[in-house]
């Protein structure tokens, strides 16, 4: 999960790298599916590494699907689809920060999911850690994020 | 909006007071509708002052509806109903802070709504103000919150 | 519930009459809220008789709300909001027939609600009665429909 | 799409066969994902033929997922998830008939999708054909259904 329309260059690079790692691990990548920002970069990275990608789309507008998405789930629910994104994920990685990303992090915590904050945004690190310290893991390295997810999956699955 | 199961005494007092003010202004109160925490206190306050109250419920379980709710909208959508709560509100007041409340604030900002943070939680004040300074108003006084809403409604309606 | 954009003159007349009866009984009218067809006619009828009306809207587009709606719930969920319409109703009256109405009737039956079919459409009468005979009541009279609802509410409430 | 808890033996056999054909065509199978009835049989058939299967689940209860589902999308939206099922499908095949299936057919028609009714239920054939003749194709043969879908996809994709 991460910013769609206001992603920074570093967010996009990290998202692409995350997508590659996720595919290399043999995991399925699930994003918000739009052709924008972190969801697009992560999907493209996963496809470049031969992975399988799911996109949970807010609307029925096929022209705006990321080309990196294999399977498009069309919700037509706008931002309420963020709850489906996190419920359908074993672990949530938030790459970058913004309003929509904040809603996904909060919904992930509410639904009992582990969340990796891959961001330099210190206000968000402090806030979400204070809300639920055991569920939040902080890093700025995609590789460290993936290793944390791997360890978490061992406990869940 | 505000904590359901982990509301503090001061959150509940402020929520009750907010409900009273909202009813006295002749506005309709919309909450998450459950018989718990801030949503229950605000609904009870509004009813005590003769107001009309709506509850947007996560599930179809009538025994858990706040007795202060006049009209129950049953979504059966769990936390995804938070998006309906904020979309259906002219202005959102967050009274207290928690994971669910954070998701509602983020969704309200995402949907372009004005949000009043009525909380002593400084991490949340700093974080949400940094995300969208023009949309966030900070106060710890129910009366000041209501006056801000009144001024906002003049611009919206 | 009933056709939005393809309602017949007789559907609209019956819907207006239903709205009036519902208001006269002191019940709250819940519709799909748009300024179109049966939902608009029923809301206008209820307002003319001094009732309270709720509209569960598919999108956030205030210009298309029926003028007969007092309280607009904005779902931004398109046709998925039909499930909320029926879950939030004590009894469902389908006035007229069409694709959207058929989905609401089926969802109402699925959620265990009583459904009144107020329609001359014999194919729909036969089909829905065969699916769940105990839940379906047939009539072409708004007055008979209201009397059936009154009797049903006695059992539910 | 088809009955979950009240599927007949013939519905299950046809669903299994449909799943096999869908996998053999190289298409992705999308169902409601539960370990019950037509959705389970179709998913098992597709897996037996080496296909990829998606399940759009109503709740977050992993024990009830069909073992034939590869990718589980958890909506926690109950029957409102039926709208996502049909929006995410290129063509909808209804195998058997029941209340939930009727809601999916109606929602599919409402969203402009082609629907194949693979059922012996004549009331449903007559009713849905009358609602939208161009969108409804009738057959009782899985093979004929698949050939119709193949022809439809040529026009859509």
Report helical residue fraction of chain A: 40-55%
Find the biggest chain interface.
Answer: A-B, 27 and 28 residues
Number of domains of chain A: 1
Main pleated sheet of chain A: 3 strands, parallel
Tell me the overall shape of chain A.
globular
Q: N-to-C SSE series of chain A?
A: HEHEEHEHEHEH
Structural class of chain A: alpha/beta
* Strands of chain A, count: 6
Beta-strand percentage of chain A? 15-25%
Q: Any idea what the CATH architecture of chain A is?
A: 3-Layer(aba) Sandwich
Low-confidence stretches of chain A: none
List keywords for this structure.
Rossmann fold, alpha/beta, 46% helix, globular, 18% strand, three-stranded parallel beta sheet, homotetramer
Descriptive notes:
Four copies of one chain form a homotetramer. The first copy, chain A, has 157 residues and is an alpha/beta fold. The first copy, chain A, has a single domain, classed as Rossmann fold (3-Layer(aba) Sandwich). In chain A, 46% of the residues lie in helices and 18% in strands. Chain A has six helices and six strands; from the N terminus they run αβαββαβαβαβα. The first copy, chain A, has helices spanning 9-24, 37-48, 81-87, 99-110, 122-131, 142-156; strands at residues 28-31, 52-57, 71-74, 91-95, 114-118, 136-139. In chain A, helix 1 (9-24) runs parallel beside helix 2. Chain A binds chain B through residues 77-80, 82-84, 97-100, 102-103, 106-107, 109-111, 121, 123-124, 126-128, 130-132, and chain B through 77-84, 97-100, 102-103, 106-107, 109-111, 121, 123-124, 126-128, 130-132.
